[in-house]
Amino acid sequence: MALDRFVYWKDKAPDKGQLERTLIAYAGTMADIAFRDDRWYINIPGKPSCALENYYGVGMLRDLPDERWIEVWPGDDCVDVITRQADDITNAIAEGLARLLARLWNGKCEGP
User: Which of 49, 57, 81, 93 is 20 to 30 A from 40 in CA distance terms?
Assistant: First the structure.
């Protein structure tokens, strides 16, 4: 399942260069960033984890992919920060990124 976090710009939208510089600064040395297929991919090291598996039994991780990543899709009046079948850590990083983008360019977050 995918989770979309849309950030709508109230004023002027950031350009592609501004977004890319912000993504690189946000990820720092923690993640690799690549642009392909009209979007950025933030590839986060490590295997997905699930704290709830310790409480509710084995098997919760079986539906997660072996990798962690975030996709950032730019649009004319918004950006979509999306995760697909992500663990809690990846979703938390994506949430923080969406809030940062909204704060930097006077935007509004919509999503989970």
Answer: 49
